[in-house]
Amino acid sequence: RFSFRREKLSVARLQREVAQSKSEGAMREKLIHELEEERHLRLESEKRLREVTLESERSRAQMRGLQEQFSRMEETVRNLLQSQGSPGQHGEGTVNIMKVYQEKLSEDSRKCKEGMEKIHRAADEDSRSESSSTEEEKEKTKLLLERLKALE
Length: 152
Fold this sequence. Notes:
The protein is mostly helical. Helix content is about 95%, strand content about 0%. The protein has a domain at about 1-85. This is Nck-associated protein 5. Keywords: Coiled coil.
Protein backbone atom coordinates (compact mmCIF):
# COMPACT_ATOMS: atom_id res chain seq x y z
CA ARG A 1 0.00 0.00 0.00
CA PHE A 2 2.81 2.39 0.90
CA SER A 3 4.62 1.47 -2.30
CA PHE A 4 1.44 1.96 -4.31
CA ARG A 5 0.97 5.42 -2.81
CA ARG A 6 4.58 6.32 -3.52
CA GLU A 7 4.17 5.22 -7.14
CA LYS A 8 0.95 7.20 -7.41
CA LEU A 9 2.72 10.35 -6.12
CA SER A 10 5.61 9.66 -8.43
CA VAL A 11 3.23 9.31 -11.40
CA ALA A 12 1.45 12.54 -10.41
CA ARG A 13 4.80 14.34 -10.15
CA LEU A 14 5.87 13.04 -13.55
CA GLN A 15 2.53 14.09 -15.05
CA ARG A 16 3.00 17.60 -13.62
CA GLU A 17 6.50 17.73 -15.07
CA VAL A 18 5.21 16.58 -18.47
CA ALA A 19 2.41 19.17 -18.34
CA GLN A 20 4.90 21.87 -17.29
CA SER A 21 7.26 20.85 -20.08
CA LYS A 22 4.38 21.01 -22.59
CA SER A 23 3.34 24.45 -21.35
CA GLU A 24 6.97 25.61 -21.51
CA GLY A 25 7.13 24.26 -25.06
CA ALA A 26 3.93 26.15 -25.93
CA MET A 27 5.34 29.29 -24.31
CA ARG A 28 8.58 28.81 -26.20
CA GLU A 29 6.62 28.45 -29.47
CA LYS A 30 4.62 31.56 -28.64
CA LEU A 31 7.78 33.53 -27.83
CA ILE A 32 9.44 32.38 -31.05
CA HIS A 33 6.36 33.45 -33.01
CA GLU A 34 6.31 36.86 -31.29
CA LEU A 35 10.03 37.26 -31.89
CA GLU A 36 9.64 36.56 -35.59
CA GLU A 37 6.73 38.99 -35.77
CA GLU A 38 8.81 41.68 -34.04
CA ARG A 39 11.71 40.98 -36.39
CA HIS A 40 9.39 41.34 -39.39
CA LEU A 41 8.01 44.64 -38.05
CA ARG A 42 11.54 45.91 -37.40
CA LEU A 43 12.59 45.04 -40.96
CA GLU A 44 9.54 46.84 -42.34
CA SER A 45 10.32 49.87 -40.16
CA GLU A 46 13.94 49.91 -41.33
CA LYS A 47 12.79 49.68 -44.94
CA ARG A 48 10.37 52.59 -44.43
CA LEU A 49 13.11 54.57 -42.70
CA ARG A 50 15.40 54.06 -45.70
CA GLU A 51 12.61 55.18 -48.03
CA VAL A 52 11.91 58.28 -45.95
CA THR A 53 15.63 59.04 -45.75
CA LEU A 54 15.94 58.83 -49.53
CA GLU A 55 12.87 61.04 -49.96
CA SER A 56 14.35 63.50 -47.48
CA GLU A 57 17.63 63.60 -49.43
CA ARG A 58 15.70 64.15 -52.67
CA SER A 59 13.75 66.95 -51.01
CA ARG A 60 16.95 68.54 -49.73
CA ALA A 61 18.45 68.41 -53.21
CA GLN A 62 15.26 69.89 -54.64
CA MET A 63 15.37 72.64 -52.01
CA ARG A 64 18.97 73.45 -52.91
CA GLY A 65 17.96 73.63 -56.57
CA LEU A 66 15.07 75.93 -55.71
CA GLN A 67 17.36 78.14 -53.65
CA GLU A 68 19.76 78.42 -56.58
CA GLN A 69 16.86 79.17 -58.92
CA PHE A 70 15.59 81.87 -56.56
CA SER A 71 19.06 83.41 -56.40
CA ARG A 72 19.26 83.49 -60.20
CA MET A 73 15.79 84.97 -60.42
CA GLU A 74 16.60 87.62 -57.83
CA GLU A 75 19.72 88.53 -59.79
CA THR A 76 17.72 88.69 -63.03
CA VAL A 77 15.09 90.92 -61.45
CA ARG A 78 17.81 93.21 -60.05
CA ASN A 79 19.45 93.43 -63.46
CA LEU A 80 16.13 94.14 -65.13
CA LEU A 81 15.31 96.85 -62.62
CA GLN A 82 18.74 98.41 -63.06
CA SER A 83 18.54 98.33 -66.85
CA GLN A 84 14.89 99.35 -67.00
CA GLY A 85 15.40 103.02 -66.30
CA SER A 86 12.25 105.06 -66.91
CA PRO A 87 9.20 103.18 -68.25
CA GLY A 88 8.85 105.43 -71.32
CA GLN A 89 12.31 104.58 -72.68
CA HIS A 90 11.83 100.90 -73.33
CA GLY A 91 8.10 100.95 -73.82
CA GLU A 92 6.13 97.79 -74.31
CA GLY A 93 9.15 95.46 -74.56
CA THR A 94 10.09 96.05 -70.94
CA VAL A 95 6.50 95.53 -69.80
CA ASN A 96 6.36 92.22 -71.70
CA ILE A 97 9.67 91.10 -70.22
CA MET A 98 8.42 91.98 -66.74
CA LYS A 99 5.17 90.06 -67.36
CA VAL A 100 7.12 87.01 -68.53
CA TYR A 101 9.37 87.13 -65.47
CA GLN A 102 6.38 87.70 -63.21
CA GLU A 103 4.66 84.63 -64.69
CA LYS A 104 7.87 82.63 -64.33
CA LEU A 105 8.17 83.82 -60.74
CA SER A 106 4.57 82.83 -60.01
CA GLU A 107 5.13 79.40 -61.53
CA ASP A 108 8.36 78.92 -59.59
CA SER A 109 6.73 80.06 -56.37
CA ARG A 110 3.94 77.54 -56.93
CA LYS A 111 6.54 74.81 -57.52
CA CYS A 112 8.41 75.93 -54.43
CA LYS A 113 5.28 75.80 -52.31
CA GLU A 114 4.55 72.29 -53.59
CA GLY A 115 8.14 71.31 -52.81
CA MET A 116 7.82 72.80 -49.35
CA GLU A 117 4.63 70.82 -48.74
CA LYS A 118 6.47 67.64 -49.75
CA ILE A 119 9.36 68.56 -47.50
CA HIS A 120 7.00 69.24 -44.60
CA ARG A 121 5.32 65.86 -45.10
CA ALA A 122 8.68 64.10 -45.28
CA ALA A 123 9.94 66.08 -42.30
CA ASP A 124 6.86 65.14 -40.28
CA GLU A 125 7.44 61.47 -41.07
CA ASP A 126 11.15 61.80 -40.53
CA SER A 127 10.83 63.82 -37.32
CA ARG A 128 10.82 60.69 -35.23
CA SER A 129 14.38 59.95 -36.24
CA GLU A 130 15.87 63.34 -37.15
CA SER A 131 14.50 66.14 -34.97
CA SER A 132 17.56 68.37 -35.36
CA SER A 133 17.61 68.23 -39.17
CA THR A 134 13.87 68.94 -39.16
CA GLU A 135 14.56 72.18 -37.35
CA GLU A 136 17.12 73.04 -40.03
CA GLU A 137 14.57 72.26 -42.75
CA LYS A 138 11.95 74.44 -41.06
CA GLU A 139 14.45 77.29 -40.80
CA LYS A 140 15.40 76.92 -44.47
CA THR A 141 11.72 76.79 -45.40
CA LYS A 142 11.05 80.00 -43.48
CA LEU A 143 13.97 81.72 -45.22
CA LEU A 144 12.77 80.56 -48.64
CA LEU A 145 9.24 81.74 -47.95
CA GLU A 146 10.55 85.13 -46.84
CA ARG A 147 12.59 85.42 -50.03
CA LEU A 148 9.53 84.36 -52.05
CA LYS A 149 7.41 87.06 -50.41
CA ALA A 150 10.12 89.62 -51.09
CA LEU A 151 10.25 88.62 -54.77
CA GLU A 152 6.48 88.75 -55.11
